[in-house]
Design brief:
The complex is a heterodimer of chains A (about 130) and B (about 375).
Chain A: H1 9-18, E1 23-27, E2 33-34, E3 49-53, E4 57-66, E5 76-83, E6 88-91, E7 106-112, E8 119-124, H2 125-129
Antiparallel strand pairs in A: 1-2, 1-3, 4-5, 4-7, 5-6, 7-8
Chain B: H1 2-5, E1 9-20, H2 27-42, E2 51-54, H3 62-70, E3 76-78, H4 86-99, E4 106-112, H5 127-130, H6 138-152, H7 156-170, H8 184-189, E5 192-194, E6 197-198, E7 207-216, E8 228-237, H9 253-264, E9 273-276, H10 281-290, H11 299-303, H12 321-324, H13 332-344, E10 357-364, E11 369-376
Parallel strand pairs in B: 2-3, 2-4, 9-10
Antiparallel strand pairs in B: 1-7, 1-8, 4-7, 5-6, 8-11, 10-11
Helix pairs in contact in B: 7-10
The chains are: A mainly beta (about 130), B alpha/beta (about 375).
């Protein structure tokens, strides 16, 4: 059954992030990688979900630069990343000028600090390997 | 089953109010004025309304709030809220309720003071996406536009042409808010909000209210205006937040359109006038494709021709749309009203000659929920 125990799936996801790990649920029934965390598989309805580390490899599926005045922090990136294992999620590509992010770009997962705690972000794959 | 809905209900009353800016009036005040106008249009009284279909972005119990304001106690009250398409979706439930005899007079209505009222909060941002601070709803539509440009070569110029077309239509509509001429160059040069969408790729933010009164078809000829019949209506949804949309270049309109055409027994080529929910320029491109007016990927090319402009073979958003006429946050009621106006034949300088079949397409959420309705004159029954 679910490995979330007494912690809800959103809490478990955040717990792993806090430990410096990115884990997502993978359905033992159909093999689907699930984002965002939940109590059943949206692909097959399966309840047997396994928290697995992600490979961290992804591809930019789409990207936008949100324009913001410099005094408010300047422009920033918002992207949709498709993970190598299949799940797609909104994130941010860091370590690169926001307007230089391209669809199809290979990216690697990283954990950034934010006001609301650890945040899953991505960096260009080459840069992340340095 | 679908055949029984076709032609079973008709719009007999229309009302608009507060298009543009109406400081000092609440969203309910504007809604009340639109309802009063719709009742005057069809000669009915408030006490005749026994079916209420309404939604807004302010009240979590919209049918209670609106019915109380109007002083009515409807036997049927539907407050489904899937975003701006809700009112187009309400056409289906109104027709079913009328056909089942659950109510005799159905009112679909909406009011908003998004322009002059207090700033609206954003109470329900999906948490896994909100933490990346997308400027919603613009960023989600920008992500869809960027993907469409990447996959099909759609250009910013083609998107800009959608905004220019909307202005061309708005210049023919005395109630439209943005009537100054606009060029593609001006759209391209306007302030970027969330690439590739600039401020002129985005709809207006206005006040506004609309109301539509429907009755069963057998009564429809007893009213002063030419009745406009609901021939088909279908809704499809695929996601709430943009990261969960299966393909950013294909909206659920592909499914809602197919089911609505089936119900109406109409093909895209037969449609005389289109009202496509244009919260952003990319919407029109996506919906022209998904609703079968061109192949996937060719919506940008089509939108950049004169076809969708006044005098074109495929008139789109004849009131000026959300981009140039009115957009108080939820546009579906206004698209519906314009379609009925066109089929009544009373749209003045912007009238599409001989219009008998209209398509109304409503969009809700972040391309999340799509409703397609086909409306027709008596000759199409």
């Amino acid at each position: 059954m679910s490995e979330t125990g007494s912690r809800g799936p959103g809490q478990v996801f955040a717990d792993f992030l806090g430990l410096g790990e990115v884990r997502l649920q993978v359905c033992r029934g159909c093999g689907r990688q699930i984002f965002y965390p939940r109590v059943l598989c949206p692909g097959c309805g399966g309840r047997d979900l396994n928290w697995q580390p992600i490979s961290g490899k992804g591809t930019v599926y789409s990207t936008t630069t949100v324009r913001q005045r410099p005094e408010r922090g300047g422009d920033y990136n918002v992207a949709i990343v498709e993970l190598a294992e299949g799940a797609r999620l909104m994130s941010r590509i860091e370590g690169i000028d926001p307007s230089a992010v391209r669809i199809g770009m290979q990216v690697a997962a990283a954990i950034a600090d934010s006001d609301e705690g650890p945040l899953l972000v991505f960096r260009p794959a080459e840069a992340a390997a340095d | 089953m679908a055949a029984e809905i076709r032609g079973s209900a008709a719009a007999v009353g229309l009302g608009l109010s507060g298009i543009g800016e109406r400081p000092g009036f609440t969203h309910l005040d504007l809604l009340g004025e639109a309802v009063a106008a719709a009742l005057d249009d069809c000669g009915l009284a408030l006490a005749d309304i026994d079916g209420l279909f309404t939604a807004n972005m302010v009240n979590i119990l919209p049918t209670l709030t609106v019915a109380e304001y109007l002083g009515i106690r409807p036997a049927v009250a539907v407050g489904t809220n899937t975003g701006g398409n809700s009112f187009v979706d309400h056409l289906l439930w109104a027709a079913l309720a009328l056909d089942a005899g659950l109510c005799k007079v159905a009112l679909i209505c909406y009011g908003s003071n998004a322009r002059s009222g207090p700033p609206a909060g954003a109470p329900d941002q999906p948490p896994y996406e909100a933490r990346y601070r997308p400027r919603e709803p613009i960023s989600s539509y920008a992500l869809a536009a960027a993907r469409h440009m990447h996959q099909y070569g759609t250009s910013r110029e083609q998107l800009a042409a959608v905004a220019v077309s909307a202005r061309c239509w708005a210049q023919l509509n005395p109630v439209a808010v943005a009537r100054e001429p606009l060029t593609v160059e001006e759209v391209l040069a306007s302030r970027m909000i969330s690439d590739p969408l600039s401020v002129l790729d985005c709809c207006l933010v206005t006040d506004g209210a609309g109301a539509v009164v429907l009755v069963a078809a057998e009564r429809a000829r007893d009213f002063p205006q030419r009745p406009v019949y609901l021939l088909g209506c279908a809704t499809a949804q695929s996601h709430r937040q943009i990261g969960q949309m299966p393909d950013l270049t294909v909206t659920p309109a592909a499914e809602s359109g197919r089911r609505a055409y089936d119900m109406a027994r109409v093909a895209p080529g037969e449609i005389d006038v289109l009202q496509l929910y244009d919260a952003f320029t990319i919407n029109v491109v996506l919906f022209l494709e998904d609703l079968g007016f061109c192949a996937k990927g060719e919506g940008g090319s089509l939108a950049a021709t004169d076809a969708i402009r006044p005098g074109g073979r495929l008139p789109v958003n004849t009131n000026g749309g959300g981009l140039a006429c009115v957009h108080p946050g939820m546009y579906g009621i206004f698209a519906t009203i314009e379609a009925v106006e066109q089929l009544r034949g009373g749209a003045g300088a912007r009238q599409v000659a001989g219009a008998e079949l209209a398509l109304v397409h409503g969009n809700g959420g972040l391309l999340s929920c799509q409703t397609t309705a086909i409306l027709g004159t008596a000759s199409t029954l």
